[in-house]
Amino acid sequence: MPQPRKLHDEFFKRAKAEGYAARSAYKLIEINDKRRLIRAGDRVLDLGCAPGSWLQVVEKLIGPSGIAVGVDLQEVTVDFGDNIFTCVGDAFTTEPAELKGDSGKPFDVLLSDMAPSTSGHGDDFLSARLCDRVLDLAPHVLRPGGNLCMKILEGEPTPQVIARAKKMFVEAGTSKPKASRDVSRELFIVGLGLRADIAAAAVASTKSPAIAPAKSLPDSPPETPPAKPSKPSKPSKAARSPREKTSKASKTPKASKGSKGSKGSKGSKAIKARGAEA
């Protein structure tokens, strides 16, 4: 039986009373209570961190000896201590070394509360693709034995994503916190203990993970740019008629190219990752 809306209003009221940016804070609190993802002194990377409620929980769990980096397309306005950094940007187009910062140390925990723009059609496939990109990134930023928690919208491709997580982590499964509505399809995939061979293979690789930018997470595959039309070849003088000699070949339009940069705020170089807090 679905939980009454009143219960979720309770989480909302509780979040306001306790100073959390959103009630989704209680999702991470419950998951961490059950799985012990995050400990004092940990280094944590939080993808899709806006509006900042998960980082607020992380800050309490890691204490002053830990470090956390939060990344989102939107700016986070919550005030944090000196060991919590937030960036506006795209995690999937930034070198893993830049995500780790000057120390170059990998993270102990990778969190992702990201979700694609939903339309009610094919949302589960878009969410699964987003989670696959997080799994692509994980061995490049996590230490061997590191932990993962990421949101996914339950659907047809969910079992395949879970199966992949189980191959990468010593222990993996799903969790649905009480702060999530029963009618919501959101689940959280939890992976404990990144396998050493997976991490070693990523370190040995000289290339960054081939992950598309967050802004191009599409409903369809990326389009291949059209080939430039070739100029018509001129016939030889012997083959040209008087009419052809006076005609001119029409010019072919050139395809326009555009690019968009990203900007960063406090912390390491900017990274973009869309976040959603239910």
What does this structure look like?
By secondary structure, the protein is an alpha/beta fold. The protein has a domain of 180 residues: Rossmann fold (3-Layer(aba) Sandwich). A seven-stranded mixed sheet has the order 3-2-1-4-5-7-6, sandwiched between helices. Strand 4, helix 5 and strand 5 form a beta-alpha-beta unit. Helix 5 runs parallel beside helix 6. The longest helix is centred in the middle third of the chain and has 19 residues. It is globular and about 50 Å long.
The CATH homologous superfamily of the domain at 5-74 and 84-143 and 150-170 and 177-205 corresponds to: Vaccinia Virus protein VP39
CATH architecture of the domain at 5-74 and 84-143 and 150-170 and 177-205: 3-Layer(aba) Sandwich
Straight-line distance between termini:
20 Å
Instruction: Report the order of strands and helices.
Output: HHEHEEHEHEHEEHH
**Which CATH class of the domain at 5-74 and 84-143 and 150-170 and 177-205 applies here?**
Alpha Beta
What does the largest sheet look like? Answer: 7 strands, mixed
Q: Unreliable segments (pLDDT under 50, ≥5 consecutive)? A: 215-226, 235-278
Beta fraction of the residues? 15-25%
Instruction: State the shape.
Output: globular
Short account of what is shown:
The protein has 278 residues and is an alpha/beta fold. The chain has eight helices and seven strands; from the N terminus they run ααβαββαβαβαββαα. Helix 5 runs parallel beside helix 6.
